[in-house]
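Session log. Operator J.P. requested a structure for one protein chain; no other inputs attached. Running the standard single-chain path with token output.
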Amino acid sequence: TSTLSGNTTLTIPSGSTWNWANGTFAISGDITNSGILNISGGNNHLIASNIVNSLSGVINHTGAHLDYNGGGMQTLMNYGVFNADPVTTLNNYMTIENHGTIQSSVSGTVNLYADLNHHPDALWDTDDATVHFKGGVLTNQAQITGNGVTFSGSGAQELAGDGDSISNLTISNSANLSISGSQNIAGILNLTNGKLILGGSDLSAGSITGSSSSRYVVTTSTGRLILNVAQTNVLFPVGPTVSSYNPVTISQEADSDDYAVAVQTGFDHPLDVDGMVDREWTIDRSGGNMMDATIAFQWNTPGHQTGPFDPSMCEVFHWDGVEWDPLGAGAASCAGGICIRTEEDVTQFSPFAIGDNVTLPVVLLDFTVIVDKDQSVELVWTTAGEVQNSHFEVERSTNTVDWITIGEVKGNGTVTDVKYYRFSDPSPRVGRNYYRLKQVDIDGRWTYSQIRIADLDQEDVQWSIGPNPVRDALSIQGLTAPVSLHLYDMYGKGIREYLVSPIQDRIDVSNLPPGIFLLKLSDNALEQTIRIVKAE
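Structure written below.
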């Protein structure tokens, strides 16, 4: 043991060498090294205020356990070269401020229990060494090359700063690692124990290994996990909390782009459905290729679900900036309490959610009500596709409040082509009649169409059309403003659209084949459908 008492400082001038092989060296002041300081041997205990390794200084720390233990925090201020070669342990009560170069030239283990601030423009090359950072906070504001760094502390640790890059990063800490700045893992992010908790900045990585439901990236704030995605599936192991794992898997049709992913509980924009997965995934894409993507979302059932939610028929929603846009209904694959819902051909990104199926099982192209000269009423409608369509119930009302069912028309189950329907009201009421269709699925779910109106014996009809039957041209009388005319066949299939006005009040129908057609007139205030007969 060597002791320098009093307010003593030690200076190693340029060109000088101090070899320290074992034991304890105590000094009350600072040590300033401008020459060469060789520290080797077994257990070395240094009791000093601070160590300053100047621009010309070199510290060779080889095969030594160095305990900087002066009873309070000390600082190693490095402006020169610090060679931390295995087996090196820097222990306790210390902060390393690196403005110069830290390097390890051979393989082996380096244990750093000190906090470390890696300043901009500084160098840290871990080379072939295995560097275990066991301190509280590592602030990286530059580049770390070589094998990289393993966070293996016994308590919670933090990676701070906005660094250029870290070659490889391993998390081996059951108390977790928090990242409070923007970091780029150029190589592999290896999750062997514990979780990585993001703050408000993004984390990018070349690839990720070792992830599981207990080892993943927690996106508690606005920070996102960024990975490159090509044609093969890439797993983004993310979760909103340390107890909830909600990863997504992404692939794209061709080429490659960067994707940024985060997930949260709850919604920034409320999802107006009865049942849902209580998660909102943020997925953004950057790059110039913009190919169709396939995304698979994962959640726990029923733990992450709210309301009467059915995974076997659920919808993926995308927030388009104004509202939640349903991308399509489908079944989630569920096993062992875990559900995965896959959506293909995705081209729009940012927030996603999963909720009850709201995609209409029947696409209604047109729904028209016709009043004949004899005051009978016919309803004609057309569908462009049907999924498990059991039937239509035709409902009528005289006040839009009290509705009665006046008939039923059988549906076509599941079809993808156009289907035509018609129904005659056996007993319409004098005056105004309101009609709507109630489309009923095979499983009992149902949706309503828009309401249509039929006026019987009304005095306020504005327009008259003639001649009827007609051979060449129809004349529309009573026009005070431009009116749109839509011509349909008797099954509601659109044929042609016209625009007439008080100046141009005739339409040419000479090219129509003989038969019965429907002509619907409409402006902003009134809609009227008339049956016309095309004569030979």
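Operator note: Residues 381 and 492 are 6 Å apart (CA to CA).
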